[in-house]
Amino acid sequence: MVAGIYVGVVAAAVFAAGAGSAHGAAAGADSDQGKGYRMSTDARFAPPSALVPSAALTYDTGLVPAGAWIQVSQQMAPSGATTVKLRVNGLEPGHKYGAHVHRRACGADPTAAGGHYQHKPSNDPADANPANEVWLDFTAARDGSGQAVAEHDWAFRQAEASSVVIHDQPGNHGTRVGCFTVPFGWAAGTS
């Protein structure tokens, strides 16, 4: 596990890892030659104004309490097929959340993360769907834990997937209640 900023070339320049800031969160990457790319990072949510900065920001402490935990992992096969896993703990029990990979890093303003990452960028609302985006919707269990997995046969483009945003409702709508900056890897030459 490595804390701080992680940038690297993975699998003999076939895959590369994006820049991300863990701000005290644990982050790790594994890149055995020809086996693709693996990354896992976690953090505790804190308000943007917190004395100790965090890569995980809460914008609604009722739904995403300060101190709640998030973990995001990515596995990318040599073919580029990508699996993203989300785990959380300490959220509002029984609440249904939306979660998506977004294009930019988190910031004090919830809109800083930009829009959803799309495999085929589009302004057509019909293209905002789980096949073209990474959707990680979940319902928090009685203990506030939750998890989700998204699998795609495509990889991220360099520097275009930078965070996971949690919304107050599942699907393609909802207010941004939390954000986690993630050092996602990408496939070289992906455009």
Give average pLDDT, whole number: 85
Instruction: List the secondary-structure elements in sequence, H or E.
Output: EEEEEEEEEEEEEE
Largest sheet data: 11 strands, mixed
Q: Choose one word for the global shape.
A: globular
Gap between N and C termini: 30 Å
Number of strands: 14
Rg is 15 Å
Proportion of residues in helical segments: under 10%
Low-confidence stretches: 1-29
| Tally of contiguous helical segments | 0
Structural class: mainly beta
Percentage beta strand: 35-45%
Features of the shown structure:
191 residues, mainly beta, 3-stranded antiparallel β-sheet, 0% helix
Overview of this protein structure:
- The protein has 191 residues and is mainly beta.
- Helix content is 0%, strand content 41%.
- It has no helices and 14 strands.
- Strands 1, 4, 5, 6, 7, 8, 9, 10, 11, 12 and 13 form an 11-stranded mixed sheet that branches. Strands 2-3-14 form a 3-stranded antiparallel sheet, with no helix packed on it.
- Strand 12 (163-167) and strand 13 form a beta hairpin.
Topology:
Layout: E1 2-5, E2 8-10, E3 15-17, E4 21-30, E5 37-46, E6 56-58, E7 69-76, E8 82-89, E9 96-102, E10 138-139, E11 146-152, E12 163-167, E13 176-181, E14 185-187
Parallel strand pairs: 5-6
Antiparallel strand pairs: 1-4, 2-3, 3-14, 4-5, 5-7, 6-13, 7-8, 8-11, 9-10, 9-12, 12-13
Outline of the structure:
The chain has 191 residues and is mainly beta. Helix content is 0%, strand content 41%. The two termini are 30 Å apart.
